[in-house]
Specification:
The chain contains 8 helices and 12 strands. The chain is α+β, with helices and mostly antiparallel strands. It has a 4-stranded antiparallel β-sheet. Strands 2-7-4-5 form a 4-stranded antiparallel β-sheet. Strands 9-10-12-11 form a 4-stranded antiparallel β-sheet. The chain starts with 10 loop residues before the first helix and ends with a helix.
Length: about 250
Amino acid sequence: MRVNGSGTVNELAAGRRSAVFLSEELVGLDEGSSFLDRLSHEELALLRASGAATNLRRGEAIFHQGDSHNGIWLIESGVARTFYVGPSGREITLAFWSSGHFVGGPEVFGGGVHIWSADAHEDLRLRFLTGSRIRHLVETIPRFAVCMIDGLVAKGKCYSALVQMLGTRSVTKRLAHLLIVFADTHGRTEGNSLVIDKKITHDELANIVGSTRQWVTMTLDKFQKRGLITVSRQRIVVEQHDMLRGLAE
């Protein structure tokens, strides 16, 4: 991950990928992935034994907006997407969550209904913990209670950052910023360029920045004509990282 425009860390080589959402502070994107790190091996084994393993293929639903809350899903591998669908049917992608994160909050003990949906953006291996199991673990393992607080704090920061971006940046700036996020979290260096090592459709970009596919296609073409990026059917290459970052600010 490129941090604040200087230096790179190859997350692919490190064996895992970052979560992705709109945020001004790129260094905090993956903060919630380590929320269980304070648990001992024994406590982590007990946690895993308390949950049910499940596998989902790309595109399959984890839960739907309006479903009753009944627990959380720990992501063991793959990528989950959270998204909201408005009354008009318009969809906005809230975040992509990678291994180490969880989806299904904030009602971790159960109760109420989900206010957004989640699905498998890539094939997923999940571990489902019911609300009653979580409550029992919180009551019997103090460190797990702190872990859940840490995880919920990270989620709160994520959605606060998203609201700030949607409320204070133009759609053009949000798109430029999103390309920087993808370049810094999924970028592979080729010469002086950063290849976004993830296939992203124009529809997906539009759902994240809150626009239409047609507008995204038109704006990407403008960025390309300015020499900021190169777009092909298979990939997006950031040619001028600092200039694109300047456009996003």
